[in-house]
Amino acid sequence: MKRILFASVLLAGAMALPAYAALTVGAKAPTFATQASLGGKHIDFNMADALKKGPVVLYFYPAAFTMGCTIEAHEFAEATDEFASMNATVVGVSADNLETLDRFSVEACRNKFAVAADPQATVIKSYEAENTQRPGRAARISYVIAPDGNILLSLQSNDPIEHVTKTKEAVKAYKAAHP
After folding, report:
1. Which of 16, 23, 60, 99 could form a cystine bridge with 27, CB 3.0-4.6 A?
2. For residue range 62-121, what is the model confidence (pLDDT) as tens digits?
3. Quick check: is 109 catalytic?
4. Residue 114 belongs to domain spanning
5. pLDDT tens for residues 29-58?
6. For position 179, what pLDDT does the model report?
7. C-alpha triplet 59, 42, 23: angle, nearest 5°
8. pLDDT at 19 over 80
9. Is residue 116 within 8 Å of 123, Cβ to Cβ?
């Protein structure tokens, strides 16, 4: 059943893939601090602090509890321990409010990683991740950011599983080059 739903998401996404102006590989990632939810509890997320621990997988998603975003959150939750073993932090960002993300962090993210609230789309815009068809909402864009703040991967795709696969590959490549 999951594969049928996923195929539907891919087909719908493939029919209308708008152009986004995501930041490029090698660009300096903007730092930010915002409120997030982890396991239904509010936390402060600070990009500069997260980068001190290792690479950051920053993924933007359109809206909590939509089909593709829930699939993506589940997949990132499944991969969180592997990311953690490489000293990488995973954080999702959407324009949803904190109350919505409290539930999403438990139900979809399975208490594994933080999801940050960006209701004014400030972070979304600074990462050029705004959905051109739905202003104020995020597009499905992922970044892997090195501890020095440079972007190692910039991925735009409507395939939620590809985001997990490609970000994991980028973190592995970074760790191999920086043992």
Report:
1. 23
2. 999 999 999 999 999 999 999 999 999 999 999 999 999 999 999 999 999 999 999 999
3. no
4. 2-177
5. 999 999 999 999 999 999 999 999 999 999
6. 87
7. 20
8. no
9. yes
Indicate which residue of 9, 64, 69, 123 is catalytic: 69
Lookup: tokens for 87: 């000293």
Pairing label, strands 89-94, 114-117: parallel
Q: What is the pLDDT of residue 15?
A: 35
> In Å, what is the CA distance from 125 to each residue of 76, 120, 133?
23, 9, 14
Q: What is the pLDDT of residue 146?
A: 98
| Domains of the chain: total | 1
Q: Under a CB-based contact definition with an 8 Å cutoff, are residues 128 and 103 in contact? A: no
Tokens of 76: 């990132």
The answer, yes or no, to whether residue 3 has pLDDT greater than 70, is no
CATH at residue 137: 3.40.30.10
Q: How many CB atoms lie within 10 A of CB 176?
A: 9
Q: Is-contact 100 64, C-beta < 8 A?
A: yes
Cα distance between residue 80 and residue 39, in whole Å: 14
Largest Cα span, the chain: 42
Cα-based torsion angle of the residue sequence 127, 53, 72, 165 in order, rounded to the nearest 10 degrees: 100
- Tell me, what's the pLDDT at 21? 58
Instruction: Find out whether 30 and 128 touch, Cβ atoms under 8 Å.
Output: no
Q: What is the DSSP string of 93-121?
A: EES--HHHHHHHHHHTSTTSSEEEE-TT-
